Amino acid sequence: MISQSGLRALACGALVSLGAMSFARAESTYEIPAGAHFNPTNQPHAGPDAAARHEGDMGNVEADASGNAKLDYVDHQISLANDAKSAIGRSVVVHAKPDDLKTQPSGDSGARIACGVIGWAKSQ
What we know:
Blueprint: E1 2-7, E2 15-21, E3 57-62, E4 69-74, E5 91-95, E6 112-117
């Protein structure tokens, strides 16, 4: 999976974590019901470069002085095909704190503060 994304309205210099979740259901509350980290292979939580990890472990992203963060992300474990590792129809969640990349099950990354649905965009 390859993704180019941006986040806005983060605190200046904030370091936050990202994770792909089991399902997509974004609501306008901070109680984001997106399920656990996407983990179809039942692996431990780890960093995005670890050989054994949740497919949903996406690591951390840091905001600039204006509170904006840009993410160019390539993942060789998540799929965009119609298979068990597909991220389509799932969600990506921004957590309030950085992921420590080791604490089970979600890296001690704090509350879920934003959520988006992973899907196909209509071609222009």
